[in-house]
Amino acid sequence: MNRFLVLTSVLVLVLGCKNQSKEEVDTSDKSVHWSYDGETGPERWSELEGETHCNGNFQSPINLVNYKVSEDLEPIDLHYSEKTILHDVANNGHSIQYDFEEGDFLIHETDTFHLKQFHFHEPAEHLIEGVRYPLEIHLVHQNESKEFVVLSVMAKEGKNSKPFELLESYLPIQKGETKLIQRPFDISQNLPQNKGYFSYNGSLTTPPCSEEVTWIVFKQAIEVSLEQVELLKYLMPINNYREEQPHHGRVIYSTSF
Asked: Topology of 55-254 in CATH?
């Protein structure tokens, strides 16, 4: 009887382990990657990603129109250093992304948000009074509560950009590839001289489309050469941008400068 109970217990454990392994494989097989077109495009993100906010009411990007000029908006409290280390660059299949080591940060409403990474969208995701620029850079900052402040920099075709020369010296980079950089980089060189901006509450523009995001979109665009724009365009997915989302009553504020 004891031997029978032992054998039964072992059999149950073995079958249980097999079932668990099968369930894990099935879950993995059901995972679906998102993209910018077709059946995994933006229109289907809320379906493909399950528990996300991609069909929420306060999504990004938006068209920055009908904004309110606010005298209460102050200059952005930036703490960027030329000594901060740019760690690596990766082609994640959705964009070209540069990752920073800890060092650069900004202060928003007395809270500290550390710069984590920046990446590109071509053409731009946000529209400014209906105008879509050829390139948009997102500088992603995060605090300890996992909330985001994202600085958005528009770029237009013009003169060659020296800071871009360093960034693009590590390109081309194949999809799924990461290249180590480990060099100091002053991200402030990629910001416009005029720091006037628009601000509103929105979301990440890629899945999971989290809505704990404060957007700060600079009014003035920086200039990059046509060749620099074309290189990024060649490496990234075609039109890696999300279409504008409804305002749903949100207020867009603008600095007076």
From this structure: Carbonic Anhydrase II (3.10.200)
Digit-coded pLDDT (tens) for 44-55 = 999 876 678 999
For residue range 63-75, list pLDDT tens digits in order: 999 999 999 999 9
Per-domain boundaries in the chain? 55-254
CA 191, distance to chain mean position in Å, is: 17
d(CA 241, CA 133): 12
3-class SS of residue 136:
strand
Q: What is the pTM of this model?
A: 0.86
Residues classed as catalytic: 94
- 208 strand-pairing partners: none
Token pair in block for residue 62: 């938006």
State residue 30 phi and psi, 5-degree precision: -85, -10
Ranges of beta strands (E only) in the chain are 63-64, 68-69, 77-79, 85-91, 96-100, 105-108, 111-121, 127-128, 135-142, 148-157, 178-184, 197-202, 213-218, 222-224, 253-254
